[in-house]
Design brief:
alpha+beta, Nuclear Transport Factor 2, Chain: A, 4-stranded antiparallel beta sheet, 4 helices, globular
Length: 139
């Protein structure tokens, strides 16, 4: 658990150092398709589909129990179903030569129309995978 927290801090700090570095258009289209699948699975409460594009290093926490506790019992009860998103170019950081990235969206959910959806990425075997997803209300 401590290692995951250290990794999270490193990813967050790297994002602060390189804020506003958008991925290439083709790469962004790939990410958008992945996020579409992710959020459709969130709405359907389908843990298997939700975790389909996650990095293998996260396997220990990519369980139906974690999905139920974090995404269904917490985020979904608070925010409701996901409805739409817009990329936040100032906070998104994806660089081809760095194995970690961050996608940040201003998203709309059924119970709140101004939500920050942040998705940490990790490049595994030269393929981008999800590392973490956070959903939080914006002021």
């Amino acid at each position: 658990m401590k290692m995951m927290l250290v990794m999270l801090m490193m990813v967050m700090m790297s994002g602060a150092l390189f804020a506003g570095m958008m991925p290439a258009e083709k790469e962004l289209a790939t990410f958008e398709a992945m996020v579409d699948k992710l959020m459709a699975a969130y709405n359907a409460e389908d843990a298997v589909a939700f975790y389909a594009d996650w990095a293998s290093m996260m396997a220990a926490i990519c369980t139906p129990q974690v999905f139920q506790t974090m995404f269904v019992d917490n985020y979904k009860k608070t925010f409701g179903n996901y409805t739409a998103r817009t990329i936040n170019a100032e906070e998104t950081v994806v660089m081809t030569d760095v194995p970690n990235g961050l996608l940040v969206y201003t998203a709309q959910f059924a119970n709140n129309e101004k939500v920050k959806l942040a998705i940490n990425l990790f490049k595994e075997n030269d393929i981008w995978k999800f590392q973490q997803v956070t959903i939080q209300a914006m002021p």
